[in-house]
Design brief:
Blueprint: H1 3-19, H2 25-40, H3 43-67, H4 77-104, H5 106-131, H6 139-152, H7 156-167, H8 169-172, H9 185-201, H10 209-235, H11 238-241
């Protein structure tokens, strides 16, 4: 292994340990509260939210298939990850500016931040997949991206389960349904909302909304970029080579 690959493998091992931690008392308490709050919502509200997020995500996935770059075939890990970091920086800055604008615009623009930020995140994942040499035109590769997304924005309890699927993706992908509609969209949307609700709620407050929106979006894109990089390091077998 090159010195860069050795360093990346070390970072990957530390990340793997983080993904497999036992949920702390605070994690368990927060999850209990989130479950209780979700149970207070009527079933028709859950179905409406699930359908809305499903449509938004599928729309972005469809559009990104035709606007993303072709998979990078021949490149070292270092070259790939230099390009990935540039993309993360670009999309992070875009999301930061978007959060500041929508946060400064009050309630209505603050609500518009949700689909805009979702689109930025998913487009970044398509770019990262291509830079690591994977073609997201493939249905199972798009599901992989959704699992990476879910891993980045889930509670520790759910993170453990999603990580297990990603760590053994080649075997897990054989069990995937052929119909994309069979993806567990309800769990996807609940985990995502639970994760970002506290981070983004203050964005709707006048005066401080712009600052909160900018900082929250910056951190969320950093979190997604770090998760995606380590997922693809794992996918490329870097952990087994270390």
């Amino acid at each position: 292994m090159t010195p860069y690959e050795q360093q990346a493998a070390q970072e990957l091992r530390a990340w793997q340990q983080k993904m497999q931690r036992t949920p702390s008392y605070l994690n368990r308490f927060a999850r209990h509260v989130q479950v209780r709050l979700n149970n207070l919502l009527p079933e028709k509200v859950h179905r409406a939210i699930t359908a809305a997020i499903k449509q938004m995500v599928q729309g972005v996935l469809l559009g990104s298939r035709y606007t993303s770059r072709s998979p990078l075939q021949e490149a070292t890990l270092e070259a790939r990850e230099e390009a990935v970091r540039r993309q993360v920086k670009y999309y992070r800055n875009t999301a930061t500016a978007e959060g500041a604008v929508t946060g400064a615009g009050g309630l209505l623009l603050g609500l518009a931040d949700f689909p805009l930020l979702l689109g930025i995140k998913l487009k970044l994942l398509f770019e990262i997949a291509a830079l690591y040499g994977f073609d997201a035109h493939d249905y199972t590769e798009r599901l992989y991206l959704l699992h990476v997304f879910q891993l980045a924005f889930s509670s520790q309890h759910s993170r453990n389960e999603v990580y297990k699927r990603l760590a053994d993706w080649d075997a897990y992908r054989q069990t995937l349904p052929t119909d994309p509609q069979a993806f567990d969209w309800r769990t996807f949307q609940q985990e995502y909302r639970d994760y970002i609700d506290l981070a983004k709620l203050a964005q709707l407050v006048p005066v401080i909304g712009a600052a909160v929106g900018a900082v929250a979006n910056y951190r969320l894109l950093e979190q997604l970029g770090d998760t995606a990089m380590n997922c693809y390091r794992l996918r490329l077998g870097l952990a087994t080579e270390a």
